Amino acid sequence: MTLWTSDASGALPHVLTALGVARRVRETRPEFAERLVVDDERAIVLLKLPVGGGVIVCGRVRKGPFTAWQVWSPDYSEFDLERASLGVDGFARLMIEEYDRLVR
User: Fold this and answer.
1) Residue 51 half-sphere exposure toward CB, CA atoms < 13 A
2) What is the spatial distance between Cα 39 and Cα 34, in angstroms, rounded to a whole number?
3) Which residues face 36 on adjacent strands?
4) If we measure between CA atoms, which residue out of 30, 31, 60 comes closest to residue 45?
5) 20 to each of 2, 25, 42, 49, 93, how far by Cα in Å?
6) Where residue 91 falls among pLDDT bands split at 50, 70, 90?
């Protein structure tokens, strides 16, 4: 699995989606504000875990002929096409759920 890259003309919608996911995570869990990083070059959101240096990532990934938005973490990296249609709110929710599962 590799991170998805795009030419400049097609990247803007993906960057906006990444920014929207980060905004929704911050609104829902303000305590995560310092842990969130948006990489607008690759249109991904990183949520740093409090210990061990791990991250939860939300962004577009490519696997074979498919490219889709996904959320993955240090112990979850399945490519799930059903997740691809969740939208900003769904991806933010998945990031928070994955964080809670890993940390609590």
Assistant:
1) 3
2) 14
3) 47
4) 60
5) 22, 9, 15, 20, 12
6) very high
Cα angle 14, 37, 61 (rounded to 5 degrees) comes to 40
| Cα R_g (the chain), whole angstroms | 13
Rounded CA separation 89/21 (Å) = 7
Let me know: does 4 contact 67? Beta carbons within 8 Å. Answer: yes
Structure tokens, 3: 């991170």
Q: For residue 71, what are the β-bridge partners? A: 58
CA distance 37 to 71: 14
State the pTM of this model. Answer: 0.83
pLDDT tens per residue across span 43-81: 899 999 998 889 999 988 777 887 788 888 887 777 777
